[in-house]
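re: ur question from the group chat, yeah i did fold both. here u go
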Amino acid sequence: MGAGAFRRAQRAANGGAPVEFDAGPAWQVVAFRVVLVVLALVLVASQVGPWGPEVRALVAGWVTSVSPVRF
């Protein structure tokens, strides 16, 4: 059964009303989205403004402190 057939079957079982899901996203999904947003903000902050070089140096220090590979 394809996705479209599944959706049609769910609507038919629900009397034609749109199917609503009551489960929110898992905590892993929320955590992943938060990490992505923080990374995007760090990337933007490292490229704009007069603080760019300091932010890049700070992030480089963090990365080298947690990286298993030394450059």
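okk and heres the other one u asked abt
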Amino acid sequence: MPTLNWIGKEAMVKPMIEAQELARRFNEDEAVWRSYEHKRALRRLLGSRSPLPEDILDYLDWQAAERECRAVRAVGFFHP
């Protein structure tokens, strides 16, 4: 019967880890969105003189926000 107790504890830990992962992803997405909104508002406030269409400029702002806010997760070791 000890195996059943162990399985029960593992079953309880996994949903907690999944909930933490969902919260982490939500917070990361929120940070990207806030950065994007800031960049877009600043560009519009200052008046962009770029010949590119507005949707392209919005896309470039989104890419810049993702680069700044998303953590790059890698597997392995970093040797400087």
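fwiw on the second one: The CA atoms of residues 32 and 68 lie 8 Å apart. The longest helix spans residues 2-46. idk if thats what u expected
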